[in-house]
């Protein structure tokens, strides 16, 4: 039996029936406060009026259906009338659909027998998970993204027969990329392109006075060794676009061309010793890098340095004597190393965002030029964002890049957001340390190493087919998005989006009810939060342009695929995707293209909306087709709740619905919120401390709970809100899955929520996750969410003070 010392029989599931503890009572101080507070009464009436009005305006069909007399209820329920469907099909019983049987098999395969859910819920829910299991239509996030990637790769290979018409050139690009694997590795095109960009400048040669032309040309060729530039919707004004100066593209090969190392982690052949001489004290936060991560990072840098040295050897003149070669190699290596060292750590970026609220700092052109004078910014932005010309591929950095006023006639038309100005200040100091000649050569070298290397060197990828698929998604994202979307019927996608929209509104309603009774909110903050929540929208419908092949044809019309010259094809496409029409700065920019194939939901600050891509919405659609309601609420409901709460998190505390107001939180309420967030950080610090086996040694993992607290607070609140929403809809009565009848719907809800995070991570991948991800690693993430849920404790009847039921719980929303 769970909780006892003796192991359970192998054939039995975990026995989850525990006696309800005596003496349980509920404190109803909030109820007393609700009855006495006139402000709350007024807010409740206002909110109720808004809710009823919204229902009448947005859902007249639902309103009419639900107000019919009981005897007149139609037997044929509307597709979105979940209450009618539940009444028609029965609120309880076993779901026998094919999708339910598949979900049951998956859930049973993931569960680990013999584990007490009150001691380690992640191991209970995910202990049986294996990456080698076949992908399921409603699997965890990692498997879901892998499934989507496989679908796209098969489509690009014309397995579906869709690579005709508007998609013909896309298929031709992928096929040309695949065929390129059979050709011998040849770096000659790379060095030829570097010569066109000014080429290597030997010692004592005259170097350009200004690096702006070269940096501009590299950006037009998708190279960003110093910094990146792109256009996106403005952070505060959704009707306009702005320019963003971002951090440089480090290791382009790791993101676009080669395998994703985040999942599996790098591996090395030699062993190391990483034992700690002195045991560390448990700390609530650690800003220092762990020794294991430092080793991993150093090995990645070493691998990149070896790549750079090989390119230097081909860049330097063959007739150069050994002494000059050694000196040049040393200078260029020092430049590359110095640039890498000023790149901000992930934890620094988080602290700048969380503490100082200064990751994206707005500049106009005058201030930008005054503060970062090592670049002629007006010239660079005009050259980089100006419309491409037909012969632009043959132009070099010596072309005329004087102030052309293509886009930037006046500071009033442009806002430039600088990502982490601290880095750009450090960049100016670094450039002053090296000669203009070394900087020129170094920029060419970094462009070749980080952008071009893996385009021509197919041996850099273990799976070239995957690399070609990733390259197609990066260079033809709109066309690939359309290809992915068009496998679904538009009406089906609309139905799914409408269902998620209803779920979204239910989640909002639950959160609004919670906001009304949260005692840490003062009245001013409460009203601001309700207003912001009321204005919050969801973007669930697919942009109609993805179903319009004429749009795709127009996008691909300018594309030229040279089946005999893959490198030139890539370079031409680089220039095309870097070209931006000047009209983009003056048109309404509220509509954005989002990648429908990405398994990544997010909160969009500029539009105060959340975005859920169809890859995630379709994964749990079976829950609405006769399946249990908890499946959609525990998964999609938690996702929706998580992203909604990001509208009220640490990073958006300074963003009000009204841009003239700086804060939606009053200072007093902000201090109260900080205390609740600190509760989460301290609880996680007390509860989680882990060593991992790394090259045969047990190595401490350096958690920084201050970095992850923003996501942890959203995780905890989202599950509570999703569960309450499901409980309100079903009153705890729901259908179960075949073979899992021994588990109550309330328990299946939490198992479903946990299994979205099942994963197998190597020690290297786990260490990288801790250092580079703002989310808590999956085992601690699941357990941390559950141990703060009273509903979870009740569902599994966990005894007081066991691991998953600590005496002190943290709750914000």
UniProtKB/TrEMBL annotation:
The source's domain of life comes to Eukaryota
Q: Where are the transmembrane segments?
A: 43-65
Identification of the protein by name: Neprilysin-1
Specify whether Nucleotide-binding is a keyword of the entry: no
- Topology in the lipid bilayer: Single-pass type II membrane protein
**Example GO biological process:** protein processing
Where does the record say this protein resides?
A: Cell membrane
Does the keyword Amino-acid biosynthesis feature in the UniProt annotation?
Answer: no
- Which SUPFAM superfamilies does the UniProt entry name for this protein? Metalloproteases ('zincins'), catalytic domain (SSF55486)
Cofactor(s) essential for the protein = Zn(2+)
Q: Which UniProt keywords apply?
A: Hydrolase, Membrane, Metal-binding, Metalloprotease, Protease, Transmembrane, Transmembrane helix, Zinc
Q: Name one GO cellular component term.
A: plasma membrane
The record's annotation in InterPro entries points to: MetalloPept_cat_dom_sf, Peptidase_M13, Peptidase_M13_C, Peptidase_M13_dom_2, Peptidase_M13_N
Q: What is the lineage of its organism?
A: Eukaryota, Metazoa, Ecdysozoa, Arthropoda, Hexapoda
Q: Which organism is it from?
A: Cephus cinctus (Wheat stem sawfly)
């Amino acid at each position: 039996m769970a909780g006892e010392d003796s192991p359970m029989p192998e054939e039995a599931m975990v026995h989850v029936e525990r006696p309800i503890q005596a003496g349980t009572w509920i404190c109803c101080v909030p109820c007393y406060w609700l009855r006495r507070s006139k402000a709350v009464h007024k807010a409740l009436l206002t909110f109720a009026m808004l809710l009823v009005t919204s229902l009448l305006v947005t859902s007249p069909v639902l309103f009419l259906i639900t107000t019919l007399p009981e005897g007149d209820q139609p037997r044929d329920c509307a597709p979105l009338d979940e209450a009618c469907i539940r009444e028609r099909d029965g609120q309880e019983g076993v779901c026998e659909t094919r999708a339910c049987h598949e979900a049951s098999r998956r859930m049973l395969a993931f569960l680990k027998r013999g584990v007490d859910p009150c001691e380690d819920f992640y191991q209970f829910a995910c202990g049986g998970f294996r990456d080698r299991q076949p992908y399921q239509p409603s699997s965890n996030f990692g498997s879901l993204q892998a499934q989507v990637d496989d679908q796209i790769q098969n489509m690009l290979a014309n397995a579906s027969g869709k690579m005709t018409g508007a998609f013909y050139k896309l298929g031709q690009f992928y096929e040309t990329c695949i065929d390129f694997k059979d050709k011998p590795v040849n770096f000659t095109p790379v060095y030829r392109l570097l010569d066109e960009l000014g080429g290597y400048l030997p010692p004592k040669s005259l170097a350009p006075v200004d690096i702006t032309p070269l940096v501009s040309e590299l950006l037009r060729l998708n190279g960003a060794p110093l910094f990146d530039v792109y256009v996106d919707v403005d952070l505060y004004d959704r009707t306009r676009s702005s320019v963003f100066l971002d951090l440089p593209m480090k290791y382009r090969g790791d993101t676009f061309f080669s395998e994703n190392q985040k999942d599996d982690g790098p591996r090395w052949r030699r062993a190391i010793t990483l034992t700690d001489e002195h045991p560390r004290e448990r700390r609530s936060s650690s800003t220092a890098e762990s020794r294991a991560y430092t080793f991993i990072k150093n090995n990645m840098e070493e691998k990149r340095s070896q790549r750079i040295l090989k390119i230097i050897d081909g860049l330097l003149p063959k007739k150069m004597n050994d002494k000059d070669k050694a000196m040049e190699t040393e200078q260029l290596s020092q430049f590359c190393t110095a640039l890498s060292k000023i790149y901000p750590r992930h934890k620094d970026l988080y602290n700048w965002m969380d503490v100082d609220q200064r990751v994206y700092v707005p500049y106009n052109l005058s201030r930008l030029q005054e503060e970062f004078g090592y670049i002629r910014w007006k010239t660079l932005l005009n050259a980089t964002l100006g419309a491409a010309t037909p012969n632009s591929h043959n132009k070099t950095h010596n072309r005329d890049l004087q102030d052309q006023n293509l886009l930037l006639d006046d500071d009033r038309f442009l806002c430039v957001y600088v990502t982490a100005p601290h880095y750009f200040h450090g960049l100016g100091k670094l450039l002053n340390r090296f000669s203009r000649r070394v900087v020129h050569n170094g920029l060419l070298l970094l462009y070749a190493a980080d952008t071009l290397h893996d385009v021509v060197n197919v041996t850099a990828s273990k799976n070239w087919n995957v690399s070609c698929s990733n390259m197609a998604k990066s260079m033809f994202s709109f066309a690939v998005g359309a290809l992915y979307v068009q496998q679904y019927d538009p009406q089906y996608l609309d139905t799914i989006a409408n269902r998620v929209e209803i779920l979204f509104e239910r989640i909002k309603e639950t959160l609004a009810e919670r906001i009304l009774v949260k005692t840490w909110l003062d009245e001013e903050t409460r009203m601001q939060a309700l207003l912001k929540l009321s204005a919050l929208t969801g973007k669930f419908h697919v942009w109609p342009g993805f179903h319009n092949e004429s749009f795709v044809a127009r996008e691909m019309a300018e594309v030229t695929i040279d089946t005999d010259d893959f490198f030139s094809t890539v370079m031409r496409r680089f220039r095309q995707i870097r070209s931006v029409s000047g009209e983009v700065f003056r048109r309404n920019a509220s509509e954005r293209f989002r990648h429908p194939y990405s398994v990544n939901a997010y909160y969009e600050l500029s539009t105060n909306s959340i975005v859920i891509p169809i890859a995630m919405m379709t994964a749990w659609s079976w829950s609405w087709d006769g399946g249990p309601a908890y499946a959609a609420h525990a998964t999609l409901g938690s996702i929706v709740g998580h992203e909604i709460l990001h509208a009220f998190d640490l990073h958006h505390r300074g963003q009000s619905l009204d841009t003239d107001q700086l804060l939606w939180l009053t200072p007093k309420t902000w201090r109260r919120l900080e205390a609740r967030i600190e509760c989460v950080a301290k609880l996680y610090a007390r509860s989680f401390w882990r060593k991992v086996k790394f090259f045969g040694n047990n190595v401490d993992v350096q958690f920084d709970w201050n970095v992850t607290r923003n996501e942890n607070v959203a995780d905890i609140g989202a599950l509570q809100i999703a569960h309450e929403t499901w409980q309100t809809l079903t009153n705890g009565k729901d259908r179960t899955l075949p073979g899992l009848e021994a588990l109550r719907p309330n328990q299946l809800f939490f198992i479903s929520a946990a299994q979205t995070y099942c994963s197998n991570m190597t020690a290297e991948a786990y260490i990288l996750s801790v250092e580079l991800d703002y989310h808590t690693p999956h085992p601690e993430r699941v357990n941390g969410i559950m141990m703060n849920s009273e509903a979870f404790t009740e569902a599994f009847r966990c005894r007081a003070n066991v691991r998953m039921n600590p005496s002190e719980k943290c709750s914000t929303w």
